[in-house]
Amino acid sequence: MNFEKWKNLEYMSGFGNEFASEDPRCPDSLPKGQNSPQVCPYGLYAEQLSGTAFTAPRESNRRSWFYRILPAAKHLPFSKIDDGLLESNFDTVEPNPNQMRWKPFEIPESKQVDFVEGLISICGAGDPKSRHGCASHVYVCNKSMDDKAMNNSDGDFLIVPQQGTLYITTEFGRMMVEPNEICVIQQGMRFSVAVEGPSRGYILEVYDGHFVLPGLGPIGANCLANPRDFLAPAAWYEDRTCDFTVVTKYQGKLFAGKQDHSCFDVVAWHGNYTPYKYNLDTFAAINVVSFDHADPSIFTVLTCQSTRPGVAIADFVIFPPRWSVQEHTFRPPYYHRNVMSEYMGLIKGKYEAKEEGFMPGGATLHSMTTPHGPDADCFNKASTDVLQPVKIAVGTMAFMFETSLSMAITEWANKNRVDEKYYECWQPLKKNFDPNWKPASSK
């Protein structure tokens, strides 16, 4: 595969927009004035992909229409295949309330593994059958998905590459997603991942609904993740006869169906239900410019909301380079016990609250009400620093999957790549209490 050409891919700008796209090799392939004409241009088939119920409110209704060479229904029956380390039953493991840290997840070296084969579930809650819950996975792979696609019937995948560029072909077109970018493949969208070499990253899966931009409230109309910076692929098709496999994730299990042609045969499409990508460098961070420490929710890129106002099934939050200018304030993240569960990963650099031990390609989990915060070295340094304006997190990008659900750690993740000494980073914290302390003005 010639990856050099992917650098010149065209995209369409906007979050949740109503798009229309046709492969330039087939001009006028989009029907005019209707969705399902008796005969489609070029002898194509019309097919709708729904992302919400037909009767969902118009402002949240999501669907797209494909004009494709063959309908997706043309395939042989699906058969069960090995799930590997993918997990969706989070009720079979013993609870673990401890602070957890994982060393960088290992990329296979001795065998060839593609994106689907390299999926590993770390933690999760809920059940895809009831369409409620979320899960955190990682992927580790070194091989492209040749003549193979994946479809997630259970929910949306938010994919965060950490090492290696992903070349993603979808029914809507192609996307090149590099580390420090993310992409979202929404429920029911078929996609294939090609890689150039060892690749690793993180995945947040949500079962309940779709990701949306967070409300800005008194911030106003601008900043954080701006809608124009989200990019959807432009139509591209291949008309190729081959021994092709579609892997579907259904009710947490993997199934494979064979067909005699590539599923990426959509010549044109229109709608508002699309895959998309986003460059984290375009996030316009908000921060405190007087005193005290704002909550990390100010760094929310995308959210999947629950039925309770303001409470997320999952938030995707980043900690980008930004200026820190607060006066007489402990500037690093505060010590915390959260009613939410916090799963963190590191794309590059060093995270300010724990500069040692938390490594790119690794992860941490601070479960519901589990205490966490800066390690002893960070506390001591931040408590004695001369406070001046300083740009922090330069060359760093950490992120958090935050959820209102209590996450269960999978059996694999309880036994593999665990940093057993993580708790030790807080042990050097000493008692500084002085019952004879007096304010400086009264001394």
Pick out its properties.
443 residues, mainly beta, nine-stranded antiparallel β-sheet, six-stranded antiparallel β-sheet, 2 helices, 28 strands, 3% helix, globular
- Characterize the overall form: globular
The tally of helices reads 2
Question: Could you give a short account of the major beta sheet?
Answer: 9 strands, antiparallel
Order of strands across the biggest sheet? 1-16-20-13-10-15-8-7-28
Secondary-structure content class: mainly beta
- Unreliable stretches (pLDDT < 50, length at least 5) are none
Cα-to-Cα separation, first versus last residue: 74 Å
* Helix percentage: under 10%
How many β-strand runs? 28
Element order: H for helix, E for strand: EEEEEEEEEEEEEEEEEEEEEEEEEHEEEH
Radius of gyration: 23 Å
The share of residues in extended strands comes to: 35-45%
Round the mean pLDDT to the nearest integer and report it: 96
Question: What does it look like?
Answer:
The chain is mostly beta strands. It has helices at 376-384, 411-415, and strands at residues 11-13, 19-22, 45-50, 63-68, 79-80, 100-102, 119-127, 132-141, 148-152, 156-163, 166-170, 173-177, 181-185, 191-194, 199-206, 230-233, 241-250, 253-261, 266-271, 276-279, 300-305, 312-319, 322-324, 341-348, 363-366, 390-392, 397-403, 408-409. Strand 11 (166-170) and strand 12 form a beta hairpin. The longest helix is centred in the C-terminal third of the chain and has 9 residues, at 376-384. The mean pLDDT is 96.
